[in-house]
Amino acid sequence: MKKSGRKREGSKPAYGITTQKNVMIKTRDGIALAADIYRPDAQGKFPALLAYGPYGKELQSLVLTFPPQSRPSPLWDGAIEAGDTNYIVPRGYAHVIADARGTGHSEGECCGIYGVGGGYEGRDCYDLVEWVAKQPWCDGNVGMVGISYYATVMILAAAEHPPHLKAIFADGGHYESYNLGYHGGIMWLFPRASREGRGGDSGYALGRAASAMMKRLSRAEVEQRLKDRLDDSDVKNYPNLFHMLHYPDAHPLVIDFLLNPCNGPFYQEGEALGKAGMVKIPTHLSVKWGRGWTVDGTIACYDQLKGPKKLELHPLPPMQERPFHELHDLMIRWYDHWLKGIDNGVMDEPPIKIFVEGIRQWRYEQEWPLARTEWAKFYLRPHGKLSREPEPLPSEFAAPDGFYQAPLTVTQTISSLKWSTAPLGEDVEVTGPAALTFHASIDTDDTNFIVKLYDVDPQGKRTQMTTGWLKASHRELDKSQSKPWFPCHPHTRSVPVAPGEINEYAIRIFSMSNVFKAGHRIEIELSSLEPFHDAAIALLPPDSFHLPSSRATTHKIYRDKNHPSHLLLPVIPPGQPQRGRGRG
Asked: Which end of the chain is more exposed for a tag (fewer CB within 10 A), N or C?
């Protein structure tokens, strides 16, 4: 590619927009996919950015006329994710927005979960990329654009190695398929909103859809799975899921999650994370703090990539505005380098860039977790204290903490336990993954454990920094993969708890970066239920809560000499970090 002089900013707007609507493009198996094409209104050839998604290209066209909205506005629609045409095209790129198979105006059948079950997304994107590259207005250099679903399929596409896909820029993708539907073994209810449309999300623009499980299994096998799920009291006592299991044909894209509560081949056989190691083209990954399952999935995906790569961990709040328009300056700079051949220094900086909350500063890093991390244990102590010193007394003298939780069918009161440090004498930076390891007994055969970590200022204002979830029956660890700061649960089976038995639980707390300032306190809160509405949930996508436990359960948390329950935090010692330069 021709070099054209170093500049750190991206291409300047220089073109108007010409549009081709509803262009039908044939795939290798004869399915016609519909696309809208927006390109510069000038002679010549241009690189192109492809967006492939299921929410309808007509909905994406609102980016041309509809002002961006942020959560929790009721006008925020998480499905408008294909990129800002008004920014992309004037800067010398074609913007191709295609309806995924079985959605919008495209033919075929929509089936499965992000490459799982259907497996057509990567192949369809390959065919679209190669068709675009051959058009008279394209110079043969193709990238991809979009967030969430659109970002996830970029990995699936790049793993297919289309010759003209030269680079990708993926933000907020869901690369671990099991973690899209379950956190710590607890069902997350958001996927229904994104697929069927709830709480402001438009959902998929479905034409023809099918459940992968309903296609794979015999009717007898399906009926048995439906019965098994109805035998779960948590599911039986949640009316929406009870309805879904009785009318599965009405919910083809959600029933697959419900019928697969454990991890295994169904989720792993086609997921993006499993294919990331096949990606060799330049890849820029980014995600915002506050959606920890997506943060850790993005980091895991980054680790697997084989080509030139960058990782950026972006500031709160956790969700971008819709229509998607943010990060476009960074994206265009990336594509100016890899698609236009502009030597703009985008690869000169260290590979990882993080935003440190608390001090609100960007910083460059070389690895994750940071090599200079000092792993610090904060022990759970009586009177709700977090201390660097362990409890010296046995349980005979240091009785356990406890809480009783009635199910939401009979109460709206959520019980919890809290432990916090004394006001900090100096700033403490916590950057990286964390874990809560504790000893507990319950008087039922299962429960949910939910941990939230807060920064509490001197006035008592709590800011949620990160979270972790674990279903008690999913406490089993893969010891070969686990680290003290990263407990790895295989989630391949459910093992009921013996009531009254003291068990050790290790909860993975999703990655974060925050400076807890002097005078602030570090606080954790442990519960078995979570509110359906609070300040943190309001900033997440619709239905971003978890299937509540239906059991009336007494929880005892042991934190004595024989049960050293503790929070493990990645403390970063003061030093001379590499500071970021603006948005570069």
From this structure: N
Q: Amino acid identity of 512?
A: M
* Residue 14 CB-density burial (10 A; 0-12 exposed, 13-18 middle, 19+ buried): exposed
Residue 256 CA: distances (Å) to CA of 121, 251, 266, 417, 493: 17, 9, 9, 35, 17
> CA 148: distance to chain centroid?
8
Q: How far apart are CA 520 and CA 513, in angstroms?
A: 15
What confidence tier does 12 reach under pLDDT thresholds 50, 70, 90? Answer: confident
H or E, element range at 294? helix 292-304
- Residue-wise pLDDT tens digits, 459-484: 999 999 999 999 999 999 999 999 99
Residue type, 560: D
Beta bridge partner(s), residue 32: 26
pLDDT tens digits along 493-510:
999 999 999 999 999 999
Cβ neighbours around 544 below 10 Å, total: 21
Distance separating alpha carbons of residues 34 and 22, to the nearest angstrom: 5
- Count CB atoms within 10 A of the CB of residue 466: 22
Q: What is the pLDDT of residues 212-271, one digit of tens each?
A: 999 999 999 999 999 999 999 999 999 999 999 999 999 999 999 999 999 999 998 889
The alpha-helical segments, DSSP class H, found in 82-173 are 85-88, 121-133, 149-159
Q: Tell me the per-residue pLDDT of 331-365, one tens digit each, with 9 for 90 and over.
A: 999 999 999 999 999 999 999 999 999 999 999 99
Q: Residues with Cβ < 8 Å from 365, sequence gap 6 or more?
A: 350, 352, 353, 354, 577, 578
- The CA–CA distances, whole Å, from 332 to 82, 91, 384, 455, 535 equal 14, 8, 49, 35, 33
Whole-angstrom distance, CA of residue 383 vs CA of residue 44? 72
Q: CB neighbours of 458 closer than 8 A, spacing ≥ 6?
A: 423, 519, 520
Name which of 188, 351, 355 is nearest 257 in CA terms.
188
pTM over 0.90: yes
Q: Which residues contact 293 (CB under 8 A, 6 or more apart)?
A: 176, 179, 183, 510
- Asked if 162 and 130 count as a contact pair (C-beta separation under 8 A), the reply is yes
User: What is the DSSP secondary-structure string of 157-196?
Assistant: HHHT--TTB--EEEES----HHHHHEETTEEBSHHHIIII
Residue 457 backbone dihedrals phi, psi, to 5 degrees: -85, 170
Give the number of residues written for the chain.
584
